[in-house]
Amino acid sequence: MYTKMRQALRQTLDEMSSSGLYKQERIIEGPQGSTIRVNGRDVLNFCSNNYLGLSAEPEVVKAAQESLTTWGYGMSSVRFICGTQSIHRQLEGRVAKFLGCDDSILYAACFDANAGVFEPLVSEQDAIISDELNHASIIDGVRLTKAQKLRYRHSNMEELEQRLRETATNRYRIICTDGVFSMDGDIARLADICDLAERYDALVMVDDSHATGYIGKTGRGTAEHCGVVGRVDIITTTFGKALGGASGGCTAGRREIVEMLRQRSRPYLFSNTLPPAVVGATLKVLDLLTVSPDRAKKVHENADYFRGRLREAGFEVLAGETAIVPIMLYDERLAMKMADLLLEEGVYVIGFSYPVVPKGRARIRTQLSASHSRGDLDEAISAIISIGKKLGVISGAKGGAR
């Protein structure tokens, strides 16, 4: 049987490669940072979720090492059997307080948090209303439920209101959205969403993975940025991006919701919890956010400068106020080619194509970090402009303007 399957898989993989959809994984030969080592040489890194530059921060690494020594390597089971240490409950309390919620529950990843958040709370009597650009983990979590499933066009409040009207007879309605949409870098209209939820008696769930740590006045995410702290019922987020960049995630929210997840959320009940080293390092990151707010400010300054310079050069760059700066190319093979040429010039980026983004919406998604210097930005901008002209993406080459 595998001979038959192998032929079909080989054909599909070859088609993906020829159309520019095949994803190559590059090998990084050292720690994550604004500069990384690839293929034996140092290159500037503009393709990381390391927004605050904490992935290799000495204080964070030291905290992980100390936790490893104090608490051991791992728990060897799930928490309700033999996997809860006091350090895990300490982190849950700190995260809940940081996000302005009653309580939180840890998961191995935010993907698991999203996969496990809906099914324990809803049934066929209920409805989940989702932004069409939500992360794949939200989509998968919704699919696992028996609830009625509806979508609304991206950030379209009129269509969201229509969906709320359509589900007026359902027992519960949950509106779910990314806080920061990872591919486009825009922020959900949370104030409007919360207004609609309160008007139509619905719950609000937000995945804040690309916001926690640097969006909002004190880095508490899109709820803080949009002025709706306390009005969002469920927040999922990750420790694998701005909060140190390792792994792990959580769901924070209303006390009874979190307690029900402890009882019935399958990714929590049937997976080992976070290693103590990750827990200890994340606690240290939360300490640093309290005493070092300048990191978040630096991210935004870098992103604003980078976005503005690329636009001045003639690139189509999506509007935004986050660290995500997408350079739109629309052609899958062009995106892969541009990424390869930039690596040769010493700038690490990745071309994004289907299914990560819709077909025909290929791009180079650059991401800024607090650890980038102004010199790093100027060097990357110069390389992007040079390659953009060479490929005809912007004017100045035989290919002309795109």
Q: Could you explain the architecture of this structure?
A:
The chain has helices at 2-18, 58-71, 79-83, 86-99, 110-117, 136-143, 157-166, 190-200, 222-225, 255-264, 266-269, 276-291, 294-313, 332-344, 374-390; strands at 35-38, 41-45, 103-107, 127-131, 148-152, 173-178, 203-207, 234-238, 249-253, 324-328, 347-348, 351-352, 363-367. It has 402 residues and is of the alpha/beta class. The chain folds into two domains: 20-51 and 293-390, Aspartate Aminotransferase, domain 1 (Alpha-Beta Complex), CATH 3.90.1150; 58-291, Aspartate Aminotransferase, domain 2 (3-Layer(aba) Sandwich). The radius of gyration is 22 Å and the shape is globular. Residues 397-402 have low confidence and may be disordered.
